[in-house]
């Protein structure tokens, strides 16, 4: 006999929110949430993205998990105030994308930054003695300028990462690679412009995206509830509101320090 009632989660839309800089803590939280979506058999997922991007590897892993999940679950991405660089890349894992007309998006490209403190160290009389196994072992060392050979190595690394980004956007949005290259030069654009370029499918709010997700799986958009999957915070953080910011993720300073010298899919004005 076929059971006439659907399990509770099959009557709801899962919701996952990605905010702030994308790093390892974002990846862990989102991957765990995606596993829950699959295990609970939610029919659809509303993915809210409000992020300037972040680390390349973490963005790629989230994208790959979304791409696998959409074989079983309908996924609608909703771009918020900003969904740029790695935020765009993650959005490519959704079948359907909606943005506000004024959403800041784009910034498709790669950046790598290091710090050169050579002149400051000279002023205070500090120098380093380096013994290394190869000429490039201390590439991007903060106490000296890059050599021409090192610049070439890093540029090739950036170009490879950039090509991966462009290829993913082209495949996800059914666009020619050269078409994507024409606007994937690091520029930012609005949600309205993103629609014209083919990066998003529709313009609308998160509520519009929720209704769209419900319609895609045959649920009533007027009545279908959303179940937000959030990271379970430590008991102390839940009891003391003042700790909420510290528990929500790393600060920009921590992010800058931890990602120095790494290729980033990140927009920073």
Number of strands: 10
Secondary-structure element pattern, one letter each? EHEEHEHEEHHHEHEHEHHHE
Return the structural class.
alpha/beta
In which range does the helix fraction lie? Answer: 40-55%
Estimate the global geometry from the Cα principal axes.
elongated
Number of helices: 11
Query: Low-confidence runs (pLDDT<50, min 5 residues)?
Result: 1-5, 235-239, 243-248
Specify the biggest β-sheet.
Answer: 8 strands, mixed
Q: What is the residue-averaged pLDDT?
A: 88
Radius of gyration, in Å, reads: 21 Å
- Proportion of beta-strand residues: 15-25%
Instruction: Report, as a whole number of angstroms, the end-to-end distance.
Output: 60 Å
Structural features, described:
Helix 3 (86-91) links the parallel strand 4 (74-84) and strand 5 (96-99). With 269 residues, the protein is α/β, with parallel strands linked by helices. The protein is elongated. Strands 1, 2, 4, 5, 6, 7, 8 and 9 form an eight-stranded mixed sheet that branches. Helix 1 runs parallel beside helix 2 (56-69) and helix 5 (148-172) packs across helix 6 (177-183). Helix content is 41%, strand content 17%. It starts with 12 loop residues before the first strand and ends with a strand. The model is unreliable at 1-5, 235-239 and 243-248 (pLDDT under 50). It has helices at 24-39, 56-69, 86-91, 118-124, 148-172, 177-183, 191-197, 206-216, 235-239, 244-248, 252-259, and strands at 13-19, 44-51, 53-55, 74-84, 96-99, 104-106, 188-190, 202-203, 226-228, 264-266.
């Amino acid at each position: 006999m076929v059971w006439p009632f659907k399990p509770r989660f099959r009557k709801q839309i899962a919701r996952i929110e990605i905010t702030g800089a994308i790093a390892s803590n974002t990846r862990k939280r989102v991957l765990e949430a995606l596993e829950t979506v699959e295990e609970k058999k939610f029919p659809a997922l509303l993915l809210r993205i409000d992020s300037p991007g972040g680390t390349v590897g973490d963005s790629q892993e989230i994208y790959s998990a979304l791409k696998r999940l959409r074989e079983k679950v309908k996924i609608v991405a909703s771009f918020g105030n900003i969904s740029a660089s790695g935020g765009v890349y993650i959005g490519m894992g959704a079948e359907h994308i909606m943005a506000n007309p004024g959403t800041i998006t784009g910034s498709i490209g790669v950046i790598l930054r290091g710090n050169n403190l050579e002149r400051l160290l000279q002023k205070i009389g500090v120098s380093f003695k380096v013994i290394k196994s190869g000429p490039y072992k201390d590439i991007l060392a903060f106490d000296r300028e890059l050599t021409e050979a090192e610049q070439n190595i890093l540029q090739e690394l950036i170009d490879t990462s950039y090509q991966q980004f462009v290829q993913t956007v082209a495949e996800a949005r059914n666009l020619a690679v050269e078409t994507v290259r024409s606007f994937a030069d690091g520029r930012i654009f609005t949600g309205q412009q993103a629609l014209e370029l083919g990066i998003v499918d529709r313009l609308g709010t998160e509520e519009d995206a929720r209704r769209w997700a419900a319609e895609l799986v045959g649920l009533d958009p007027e009545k279908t509830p959303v179940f937000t999957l959030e990271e379970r915070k430590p008991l102390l953080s839940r009891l003391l509101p003042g700790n909420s910011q510290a528990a929500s993720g790393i600060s920009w300073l921590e992010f800058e320090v931890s990602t120095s010298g790494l290729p980033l899919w990140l927009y920073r004005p």
